[in-house]
Design brief:
alpha/beta, seven-stranded mixed beta sheet, binds 1,4-dihydronicotinamide adenine dinucleotide, single chain
Length: 706
């Protein structure tokens, strides 16, 4: 029995217990109201119904402890929730604050009912129970944190500056509340909230609900035609009210993803200096050497778990856009939240601005980045090394996604950090997984096995090599040697077929440089190699012309044609061209979205091989399991899971990916598969939860409804 009973031998306190039971409901309501505005981001992330459920359990246990004289059940519960909350990244103070809030609301209820003496006695009892629970919480957290520190691999550097703590010391109220996009609900603040949080007069009098706010935003959005203007309207909403933004995006993902991400985000990055209004994300420049820890400390949220970083050198297929590349991490992270429910406050977009080779930007008087040639060599590597070390120090739980780095740096950075930090490259591994999943689904349509398949890649950069590497891994698991598996992957790049003996082949192409006579064109390569699948990732639009498509259709009953290059203008062919050029027999997917195509009396729905099917789920699995590294096996598991979720009806329409409407469920399933790899390979900092992993993933997702 806990020490609580030993110190309080005058219990059970029947009348107090009865009193608390009668007042349980108002106490709960009061506590919930406080909780919503105590800046407890993770509680907000979980949504009100779950917060109510938890507070109610806590209240019941408090009353039961007073009734039975034993706080064992309460102590047990506190230890259990400490483990669960720690694993999910809640801060100790957040969990404790929720206990305090409950305690205070009980006080308030009792205050009105008891005499001064009775009150002192009653409060003493309530405090004793809740304090015991808080004590258990703190001790469990300390034990878990000590264990996690031991598990960290990257050494951190000392930071002499001010410790980071931007949490407000009291609830955010008044105009500050309206200006905090994470907490702001605008006209949906209730009357009670308006009077409690100093909002009277700061809002028009009529209280709306989120649905009518959505209607308003929708009307505004529909009143503009230009996608870039829609992008600006959406970003402005994100700056005002994140809950509303994410509700809009989640409810209309298929329609709005092309605005917040490719293709429109490409235009936004090109125009970044011109459309710049408010900064979003962190800018770390070549001039910040030695100050990166300090910069990370400037970020207003201190429990970052998901970082997307670019140096802006290869933005989509648009080339070097320097600091304008910030649109990419910002956009990708909105998809992490919309598609996998990673809470917005845990997401950090970063641009590492090392200059640009883009002449236009170097000349542009309003360009927002460093106007100098790109840093290269040791100076570049040292800046990136400092970045990784600083993240390990300031945000030790964070996963780092490398995004749109030029391929020489992307391959190098990935191999340098993949085993010592929690990091991956989306253009290599994410694309690899989404393309592998597309191939696996296509083979279900073509009724072929992967072992019967020869893939010809057009382009031999990050996307193509990443796909081939994962394909090889999959074939090896099916029993092939690596050398045999590689024979299934061939490449054509700007110099023609990649063959052994070609001069100056870069390292990432070497494993795929097979013995063959040099061939100059893609068409020649198709004729010579007779591929089952043609995957374009060259960044050069229109290169799968009628001759290429016809040849693929001559060789295959169901030719697999993927035109992955982004944005839309860079696609190797359009969906229409692919179906028309193969008599409607192509199994087609693209990087940017294409509308359904009517051809020969049938409607074909092209698949969008968008990495969004992979990275949010992988990120959720990595974060929730507390994986220390991100491995290719995880991407392989993600690809298999994704392919398995495509329904027969979808395949029938030519769709090789599940409908985007199901993305949250897809992400939960992928996250569970990734976490399964992490747990079974001993890569996690946390213990495997007792519940089904997919349930844990679903329960971890941020819900933007209010
Ligand atoms: P990268 O720069 O690493 O590779 C491009 C490759 O294309 C290089 O090997 C280059 O030699 C080759 N290439 C260039 N011009 C060519 C030509 N005329 N003929 C043949 N090959 C040529 O770029 P990365 O990261 O591989 O991306 C390539 C494209 O794939 C981009 O447009 C990008 O937006 C797109 N992409 C699509 C994804 C998706 O749909 N899920 C994901 C990642 C990238």
């Amino acid at each position: 029995m806990s020490s609580y009973a030993e110190e309080h031998d005058d219990i059970p306190e029947t009348s107090l217990v009865e009193l608390l039971r009668t007042k349980a409901e108002p106490a709960l309501e009061e506590a919930l109201l406080e909780l919503q505005h105590a800046h407890l981001e993770h509680y907000l992330a979980d949504g009100l119904p779950r917060a109510r459920e938890r507070l109610s359990r806590l209240l019941t246990l408090t009353i039961e402890a007073l009734e039975s004289g034993s706080a064992d059940a309460m102590v047990h519960y506190a230890a259990e929730i400490a483990r669960e909350r720690f694993a999910r990244g809640y801060r100790l103070d957040e969990v404790q604050t929720s206990f305090n809030i409950l305690q205070e609301s009980l006080w308030k209820q009792l205050l009105a009912l008891l005499s001064r003496d009775e009150l002192t006695h009653a409060l003493g009892l309530v405090v004793a129970v809740i304090d015991l629970a808080k004590d258990t919480l703190a001790r469990t957290y300390v034990q878990l944190a000590a264990k996690r520190r031991d598990d960290r691999r990257v050494p951190s550097r000392p930071y002499e500056g001010k410790p980071m703590d931007h949490r407000p010391t009291r609830p955010v109220t008044g105009i500050d509340l309206l200006h905090d996009p994470l907490l702001n609900k605008g006209t949906a603040f209730t009357k009670q909230e308006r009077s409690r949080f100093g909002l009277r007069g700061l809002l028009p009098p009529r209280v709306s609900v989120q649905d009518s706010q959505l209607q308003r935003v929708r009307q505004n959005l529909d009143s503009v035609d230009d996608p870039l203007q829609k992008y600006l309207a959406l970003m402005a909403l994100l700056d005002r009210n994140e809950g509303l933004f994410y509700r809009l995006l989640t409810d209309n993902l298929a329609e709005l993803m092309p605005i917040v991400y490719t293709p429109t985000v490409g235009r936004a990055c090109q125009q970044y200096a011109h459309i710049f209004r408010r900064p979003r994300g962190l800018y770390i420049s070549a001039e910040d050497r030695g100050h990166i820890v300090e910069i990370l400390h400037h970020w207003p949220h201190w429990d970052v778990q998901c970082i997307v970083v670019t140096d802006g050198e290869r933005i989509l297929g648009l080339g070097d856009l320097g600091a304008g590349g910030m649109g990419i991490p910002v956009g990708k992270l909105t998809l992490y939240t919309a598609c996998a429910g990673i809470h917005p406050s845990r997401c950090l977009p970063v641009v590492i601005d090392v200059g640009t080779e883009n002449e236009e930007l170097l000349e542009c008087p309003i360009y927002i980045g460093l106007q100098q040639r790109r840093l290269r060599g040791d100076a570049y590597d040292e800046l990136l090394e400092e970045f990784y070390e600083a993240v390990a120090e300031v945000f030790p739980e964070a996963m780092i996604q490398l995004e749109d780095f030029a391929n020489t740096n992307a391959f190098r950075l990935l191999s340098r950090y993949r085993n010592q930090a929690c990091t991956f490259d989306d253009d290599i591994q994410g694309t690899g997984a989404v393309a592998l999943a597309g191939v696996l689904s296509s083979l279900r349509i073509a009724e072929k096995s992967l072992q019967d398949c020869r893939v010809l890649f057009f382009g031999a950069g990050e996307a193509a090599i990443g796909t081939a590497d994962l394909l090889v891994q999959e074939l090896c698991e099916q029993g092939m040697t690596e050398a045999e598996a590689r024979e299934h992957c061939w490449f054509v790049d700007s110099q023609g077929l990649v063959v052994a003996g070609r001069d100056k082949l870069v390292a990432h192409k070497l494993p795929y440089a097979h013995d063959h006579a040099p061939l100059r064109t893609l068409h020649e390569a198709i004729v010579a190699l007779r591929p089952t699948a043609l995957i374009g990732a060259s960044g050069v639009g229109g290169t799968f012309d009628a001759t290429v498509l016809r040849e693929m259709a001559n060789i295959n009953q169901r030719p697999i044609i993927f035109a992955l290059s982004n944005p839309t203008d860079n696609a190797e062919c359009t969906a229409q061209q692919a179906y028309e050029g193969t008599d409607g027999r192509a199994i087609f997917a693209s990087g940017s979205p294409f509308a359904p195509v009517e051809f020969a009396g049938r409607t074909f729905v092209p698949g969008q091989g968008n990495n969004v099917y992979i990275f949010p789920g992988v990120g959720l699995g990595v974060i929730v399991s507390g994986a220390r590294v991100v491995t290719d096996k995880m991407f392989q598991a993600a690809a298999r899971t994704l392919a398995s979720l495509v329904t027969d009806e979808e395949l029938e329409r030519g769709q090789v990916y599940p409908a985007l409407e199901r993305i949250r469920e897809v992400s939960a399933q992928i996250a569970a598969a990734v976490a399964e790899v992490a747990f079974s390979e001993g890569l996690t900092r946390t213990e495997r939860p007792k519940e089904e992993l997919v349930e844990v993933m679903r329960a971890s997702m941020y819900d933007p409804h209010y």
